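dumping this here so i dont lose it
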């Protein structure tokens, strides 16, 4: 209950007229706002207690007896005081002993604190509080913003996201669809997408498909039934018509890492990456270069192969098609491909693996065959997953800036409804030379 009181003589003879507000609700703190303490009270606790005693008298007279009768004697241990700009100060009064409180009580109390109460404590308008606490906006470090955040923290304010979303007609959630989270690259892009969502006040929900079209459709339907505002697809395959179905239904979506050429996309510049990997091996003197190429349904793998072929063509070297192997993307695929490449008399002096897992599998199999990296063969991977720098022979690879790709994907998702054009943003990878590549020795 919010009680407004005006006094002339109720305070024990004071002829001054002033107003105060006392918020009394069971299960949470009481908030007291005194408009101009400089005129009537000092900031010391004794005088504040006198004010509370006076208020108690007024509240009791109005039949609201929630404050204990001995407030003036025990208020000191229950009192928190803070400045309220130049118009006054605020008091937060706890109804019980200070110390650890029950978690359920804390949640119940915090869930009831409103923007109005934070605004009163900080001495600003409700709209100012709303703007400062809006996670979608850049964080302000002004004195007012700091005061608002401190008041919200003191009061235990927790933003009611469901109410905000109901007012906006959104859920502030984004559905992320990836093939699997056991794949380090897909786990990394999901984590970066989740961080990018949080930076703009959204929350990411993930679903996996195991590269199965029916699972992709089921994942999308499940996420849409849960009210996500849009989808980020990292599972799309070349030629997949799924994006057409989403567009026909008016579902906002963005493609990340992979594309079918039919929608806004945030991608790594995979053709450039394939070119840089191959150019690195050429610069080391290698001319017999093989590629473990992954699957052609992944646009990223296709583009890396285009870059591989372009680099060889510019160097005047023909591509040995028997050394371009289409495989899965896992460790076993790399091991099997290495066995195949080194089962004949003519062998490559260098290998470009379309991802790091394939490269790791190839290195392990070559070691079992007595073939040393880089003494007998140089190997370049792709993605720069964390483990490759810690291998016995650290892997030369292309570093993909997953954080930038994710940030741009969420930006594109926000722009989907405002633009009729499909924008594709490419982010360049960086070659990271390590000890798995060396100068060719004939």
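and the seq i came up w/
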């Amino acid at each position: 209950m919010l009680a407004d009181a005006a006094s002339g003589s109720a305070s024990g003879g004071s002829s001054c007229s002033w107003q105060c507000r006392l918020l009394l609700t069971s299960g949470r703190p009481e908030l007291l706002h005194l408009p101009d303490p400089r005129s009537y009270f000092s900031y010391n606790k004794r005088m504040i207690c006198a004010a509370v005693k006076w208020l108690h008298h007024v509240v009791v007279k109005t039949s609201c007896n929630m404050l204990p009768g001995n407030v003036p004697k025990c208020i000191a241990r229950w009192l928190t005081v803070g400045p309220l700009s130049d118009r006054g100060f605020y008091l937060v009064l706890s109804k019980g002993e200070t110390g650890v409180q029950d978690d359920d009580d804390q949640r119940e109390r915090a869930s009831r604190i409103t923007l109005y109460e934070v605004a009163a404590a900080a001495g600003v308008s409700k709209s100012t509080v709303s703007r400062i606490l809006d996670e979608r906006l850049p964080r302000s470090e002004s004195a007012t913003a700091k005061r608002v955040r401190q008041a919200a923290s003191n009061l235990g304010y927790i933003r009611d996201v469901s109410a905000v979303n109901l007012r906006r007609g959104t859920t502030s959630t984004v559905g992320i669809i990836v093939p699997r989270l056991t794949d380090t690259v897909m786990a990394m892009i999901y984590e970066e997408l989740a961080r990018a969502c949080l930076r703009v006040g959204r929350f990411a929900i993930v679903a996996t498909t195991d590269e199965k079209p029916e699972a992709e459709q089921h994942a999308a339907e499940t996420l849409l039934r849960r009210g996500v505002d849009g989808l980020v697809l990292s599972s799309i395959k070349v030629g997949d018509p799924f994006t057409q179905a989403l567009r026909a239904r008016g579902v906002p979506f963005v493609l990340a890492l992979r594309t079918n050429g039919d929608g806004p996309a945030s991608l790594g510049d995979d053709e450039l990456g394939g070119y840089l990997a191959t150019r690195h091996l050429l610069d080391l003197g290698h001319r017999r270069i093989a590629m473990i190429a992954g699957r052609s349904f992944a646009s990223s793998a296709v583009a890396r192969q285009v870059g591989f072929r372009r680099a060889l063509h510019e160097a005047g070297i023909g591509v040995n098609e028997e050394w371009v192997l289409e495989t899965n993307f896992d460790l076993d695929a790399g091991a099997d491909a290495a066995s195949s490449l080194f089962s004949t008399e003519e062998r490559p002096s260098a290998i470009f693996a379309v991802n790091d897992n394939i490269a790791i599998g190839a290195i392990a199999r070559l070691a079992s065959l007595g073939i040393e990296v880089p003494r007998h063969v140089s190997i370049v991977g792709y993605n720069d997953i964390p483990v490759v720098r810690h291998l016995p022979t650290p892997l030369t690879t292309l570093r993909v800036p997953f954080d930038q790709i994710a940030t741009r994907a969420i930006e594109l998702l926000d722009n989907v409804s405002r633009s009729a054009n499909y924008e594709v943003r490419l982010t360049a990878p960086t070659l990271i030379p390590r000890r798995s590549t060396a100068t060719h020795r004939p």
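Residues 2-162 form one domain.
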